[in-house]
Design brief:
By secondary structure, the chain is mainly alpha-helical. The chain has one domain. 66% of the residues lie in helices and 0% in strands. It is built from 15 helices and no strands. Helix 1 crosses helix 13.
Amino acid sequence: MKLSLQRITNSTTFIPAIDGLRFIAISSVVLFHILKYITTKDNHYYHSSIDLLSIQHIFEKGRIGVPLFFSISGFILGIPFSKSYILKGPLINLKKFFLRRLTRLEPPYIISLTILFIGSVYFAKTLSFNEALESYFASIFYMHWLVIPQYLPLINEVMWSLEIEIQFYLLMPIFAAIIYRLKLPFARYTVYIALALCCMISNHFFTLQYRTLFGFLQFFFVGMALADLYVRKQLILPKTKWDNLIAIVLFCLIWVYDFQRTGSSIELFFWKCYLVICFFFFFYYVLFHRTLPFLSHKIITNIGGMCYSIYLLHYPIISLSGRVLLKYQFSKNGYMNISIYTIILLVIIMIISTLFFLFIERPCMKENWYKNIFNFKQKEPKSSTV
């Protein structure tokens, strides 16, 4: 059996830079969770030697990786629908659309969730059987936000964002039919902006105890708007020799956003708008002006291509490995020690996630893979002579 780390996809729609953007998103999330775990669990040792608050503040910005994923999803799902409506291409077969996502995403999700259910109850013993079972079935049906709204998914906290993704998948055909059917680009972009503003404004007036799509819809619209431009091959800014520098500046501006920022509702609202605008133009320069070519390097795209496996597994790996790892002090220098912890955890995450990707996720990337499970050709019985 030939093993490959390259994601299986339709070669006609493969966009290397998208996997490069996935690399940025998954790296941000993983580093955020690693540093959060280390500085929370090991603060007794570093309390007097380094500034933990500064480290936490810097790497907390890694949470931006989640809305980055949302924008990528909006773009990826937006391309086929925009081709269908805007370019008058073939109609989208919704049965095939949903079946593809079901067979592509569900097996790795359910397998990882089942493994973590068993591990949390019988090995780590962090949850009782009843607690884990309730959370398990709530997560299986992406209803944790409704069944147990006061908690993030108990078995694997990061799965809350996958519930947001599923809500978008279900509503994407409706959004596409409403927006992409509009003939004039100006009308479509007016709707993108209006809906995004409505979502951000409503989030300030209606605070829910659980996270839903409408708290993050503006990021999905960023992707949909970019898909609109992409299929029409429409540039909105001229290419210049400074494009790479502009992309780097935009990337840096994204990380200026502060999740701990406090202030008036108006101030917070404008900062949310700021983040959405930075996302849009950073993605634009990477995808349309083809800046930051290293994002299309094979190593980067391979890691970005396996981001789903990494996302599903990294948080429990950090928790499980960290329990053992943090018992050891490798250096009297606090910064050096945290760096060693981070490198070791990254290596462990990549090894386990790569194996999961190769043997669980990647086979599910093959279209109609499930049809071949029981499709064995019966061997003809050999004739015998007496």
